[in-house]
Amino acid sequence: MFYGYLSDYLSGTQLNLFARATALSSILLLSACSAESHDDNNKVANNHTESSNNTELSSAEIKSPPVSASELKPGGNTTTSIQPFPAFDKVAENLPDDLKADFFAGKALAEQPWVKAPTITTARDGLGPLYNARACLACHIRGGKGRLPDDSNSAVFNAFLRLSIPAESPDDIDPHIGVIPEPVYGEQLQGQSIALHHQLRASDPQQIHAKGDVSPEAYVYVNWHSKTITYADGSQTEIRWPEADIRYLSYGPLHENTQISLRNAPAIHGMGLIELIPQQAIDHLADPDDSNQDGISGRVNKVWDAVSGKTVPGRFGLKANRPNMDMVVASAFANDIGISNPLFPSQPCTAAQTVCNQQIHGTSNNEFELPAELLVLVTEFSRNLAVPERRDANDPEVLKGRDRFYQSGCHLCHQPSFITRDSTAGTSQNNPHLLNQTIWPYSDFLLHDMGDGLADKRPDFLATGNEWRTPPLWGTGLSQRVNGSNSFLHDGRARSVEEAILWHGGEASGALKNFLQMDKSSRMALIRFVESL
Count of H helices and E strands in the chain? Predict the structure, then answer.
């Protein structure tokens, strides 16, 4: 399931904007921002360091800010140990005892496989009729990222395709969904169905459709392509990218102008903390017109919130297309598992899919398949997932990598630190233990043009086809240990932190140039720093 966010203004202390003119002023600002008071951390959250995005920076030009003790606990008091094993679905360390029963009840609901209706197990029937996974944690195994197959003969499971068609004018777009769905297949391609022949893999989707049963929309495979990147020191490495291979389309061909975007399941820890970052802190990082001419022009997406019934800022999802945890969890139940709920009451069948619309639903007395009280349990479970502790933070190589991270300008988008709100007023949260936490997600939660290399050419609300939300970096180095996944970036193309960096373009071109010009020891140090977060 793919997760998203809530956005209210909060001004705990006066947030300052500073003119960023020279590297020297940047050094002073960053040093001032490193103190561990609430006021100083808000300055960290709302000030970019002065640097040119198009010039190489040296350690003589800019220094990283002093190390803060709070960096060792990136999730504040929610931070958990990685012993006896690392996982991203662990309970927040500071969750009050009286809330733990609900947490584990929500986790059970996230783990349980849903089944076809009707059945005597009415609490978990209603799967599909079309879906991508039977359970939330089937894609987010142990709370971690999905995995893409390395070969072209294994169907995709932990990822899926977003679909839409271009709009002739903005008025053509439904403001509630932000895109024009593909007319026959909708906005998400579902590769599984409740048909017995599919469950037994006895027939392909087209054969199932021909039998008159509800068929999966298609099977998705991946064909991989690669190219070689050469560093300034002459060393080389390979990077790859996927091409979606859609087979057995069972409801006819796609619209000739269909926009297709492959999406890998992200990790889900720390979401409740992200939800409580003051919107004002994020807004102060936005610079849509690049008024300071540093080459970075982050933008806030504006998306529909069914909870409040209005358009609000987005911060969750690969294109920041969800405003709060309620919407993210509810939309994932509806689109990924085919479970209706109060926020997304419809089944994932389009008008063209007659047999799909004729299937029995897992409801009684016109209720939802996932009633409000159970939706709340899963949402609260998701909000209270702990952030893992830092590793090797004081190692000399990691500290060197930290310097290179700042010197290269990585922090201009991967904003290191925020302080969460001091009140849950105006939100659907009731988690006071998540308030006033100094956190280190390393993201500004804004949209950035990442260049043609990463573009999916598929707009989403205000996000263009070249724009992506800056992903948080906390826990990056634990991904493979959590569940075996080393699939980074939106479509899982990068097999390592190094590959992910090498795919940066657009607004991140300056940071990429700096990385390419480093010697090998500096590159490895920067990578190790990111992996320590």
Answer: 16, 13
Query: Exposed (0-12), middle (13-18) or buried (19+): which is 11, by Cβ within 10 Å?
Result: exposed
Give the count of beta carbons closer than 10 Å to the beta carbon of residue 391.
16
Residue 516, judged by CB atoms within 10 A of its CB (0-12, 13-18, 19+), counts as: middle
Among 412, 442, 396, 445, CA closest to 514: 412
Q: What is the dihedral sign for C-alpha 481, 482, 483, 487?
A: negative
Provide the pLDDT confidence category of residue 424 given band limits of 50, 70 and 90: confident
**Residue 290: C-alpha distances to residues 15, 223, 284, 295, 533 (Å):** 19, 37, 13, 6, 29
In which residue are the tokens 């010009």 written? 517
The encoded tokens of residue 393 equal: 């933070």
Going by pLDDT thresholds of 50, 70 and 90, the confidence category of residue 5 is very low
> Helices in 112-213 by DSSP H: which ranges?
136-139, 196-199, 205-210
Q: What angle do CA 291, 421, 32 make, to 5 degrees?
A: 55
Q: How far apart are CA 104 and CA 91, in angstroms?
A: 9
DSSP classification of residue 185? T
Confidence (pLDDT) at 37? 37
Bridge partners, 259 (sequence order) = 164
pTM of the full structure: 0.89
Whether 73 contacts 93, CB under 8 Å: no
CB 57 within 8 A of CB 64: no
Q: For the chain, give the mean pLDDT.
A: 89
Cα 303 versus chain centre, distance: 15
Cis peptide before 166 (omega within 30 of 0): no
Task: Encode pLDDT of 298-350 as tens digits.
Answer: 999 999 999 999 999 999 999 999 999 999 999 999 999 999 999 999 989 99
Q: How does residue 131 score in pLDDT terms, banded at 50, 70 and 90?
A: very high
Decide if 61 contacts 34 (C-beta within 8 A).
Answer: no
